[in-house]
Amino acid sequence: MDAHSRGRADDIDPADQWVLNPHTGNYELRLDHSAGESGSPSLTATAEETGRGGESRTGLSGESPGRRRTGSRGSAADAPRREVPGQRSRRSAQGTRAAAEPPASGRRKRKPRKSRKKKALLWTGGVMAFVVVAGSAGAYALYQRLNGNIDTVDVGDVGSKSVVSDGPMNILIIGTDKRTGKGNEGYGDKGSTGHADTNILFHVSEDRTNATAMSIPRDLMTSIPDCETKQPDGSTKVIPGAVKARFNTSLGQEGRDPGCTMRTVEEITGIKPDHFMMVDFNAVKELTAAVGGVKVCMAKPIDDPKSHLKLPQGESKVQGEKALALLRTRDSFGNRSDLDRIKVQQQFLGSMIREMKSSDTLTNPKKLFKLADAATNALTVDTGIGDAKKLMTLAQEISKVNTENITFVTMPVIDNPDEPKPVTVVVHPQQGDPLFAMMRSDTSLTKVKQKEKAAKSKQAALLKGPKAEAADIRVDVLNGGALGGAASATVTWLQNEQGVLKSANKANAPEKIKKTTLEYAPNQADQARALAAMMGLPATAMKQGTTDAEGLEAMVLTLGADFKGAGQLITGPAKAPEGVEQASADKAVCAK
């Protein structure tokens, strides 16, 4: 029996085999179709939120309707087990086992537990639903089916080879204009292999308290680096880069794969994506239908003859073709530009997050299964997260972030000055790098109060006091990071761009370090403050000695792994630059 049909009989949908046990309040997956027989083996699934951080967890239980749970969660010592025929016993992400037991007689039946507020975050198009179904059901057949749905692309040495679980995490979400699926012939470029049409760099903080979702305009003019791609025969091919090109051509054009888009993002922002997730037009239609539609709000009635989008003023629900039309239309909002379309896409994604974490979704196993099935069918990912277990781990990491602390922003841009009648944009010269620096240094854009207050106070104390003139700063620069030529490039930037002429390249440091440091003497504090302001050094980088410097002694700047390039701030400001619009995922906004 293959992975897609295992656990099914007589064309019965696996989701239809779930039965609500009125005694426990839990759903049971009966694989032998004997729901009416009290002695038939069953799998009991619960999805509840536990833990101090509000993490959404999946509990597995092999308890019968009348059996009490004692000791630690999912203890195996309670009683002998009976395995469901044709099914392996598997561990969940919490280390518990799914097992089937006959009902224990003579025991008091548990009252249904009151469900707590759910914080499960599903914003990557169904991954969290996949976790809840594949994990809580413990059903090997469903797990195999979902696992077989996933498509992967080998992007070589780009990104991470495994799920990042102990540091900041960056995921590049790519929506392509590939015209796959019935009824999609009228969208996108005819014959296109799929360009990077909708792009979001999703940064999850190291402590999982917050996340920033930064949209990257498809019409951004940038440099696309050379990229090595894997060919169908297993060989590699280097695709030449481009000096001035639209961002969306970083995928599809000249045979570029998602790894090329990941490299382009790093080139622009200094932020290295760990993984990518890619969906096409058809995925939008299938996912919105699976979740039962997404609520949207219009500030005015919409009647767009180009996209055939018709929506009333106020709230309504969209799914399938109408959802895709909403995300594709330019002419119905703002100044009819891609930037205004991005705002609508962000509002749509925020609404989808709220829908997917709602009790209507999380307590409905049939809806969960359909959503997980559609999501895994829709996703194309890198090989680092290209199986069910890794996707489950990734989703569990993302789920730790409270929805109110997910901030949507758009990369700050201005009209392209090289065009007499601008249709493309370039990175904003004042707002761009400070925002990128905040993301690089893992500084929250949300109101995570304690962290924001600490960052402000430390940085204020660091920069308080007189600063030396650039011409009076003496500094030796060493490279202790992974970026080749960093010391030389920094000295060139300091001398040519900042006027720090007394800076010297001292080549490689004795050893690699994670964080950049600036060592200085007490009588060099004014020089240190000036250099820190130029480079965006955090308070933790400052290392003041105990004795004064003598004569022409220079400070020592050692660049660490956090250094991303000459002229790029090592840490950003405590708050986003003025003029950068922000939107929270937990608030509904009407599109204008």
Please describe what this structure looks like:
The protein has 592 residues and is an alpha+beta fold. 25% of the residues lie in helices and 21% in strands. It is built from 13 helices and 27 strands. The chain has helices at residues 127-136, 140-149, 258-269, 281-290, 321-328, 338-356, 359-362, 365-378, 388-398, 432-440, 449-463, 486-498, 525-535; strands at residues 18-20, 27-29, 43-49, 56-61, 151-153, 169-176, 196-204, 211-216, 221-224, 227-230, 236-239, 242-246, 275-279, 294-298, 302-304, 309-311, 314-318, 380-382, 406-410, 413-415, 425-427, 474-479, 502-508, 517-520, 542-544, 555-559, 582-584. The strands form eight sheets. Strands 5-18-13-6-7-8-19-27 form an eight-stranded mixed beta sheet, with helices on both faces. A hairpin with a 6-residue loop joins β7 (196-204) and β8. α2 runs parallel beside α8 (365-378) and α4 (281-290) packs across α5. The chain is globular, with a radius of gyration of 27 Å.
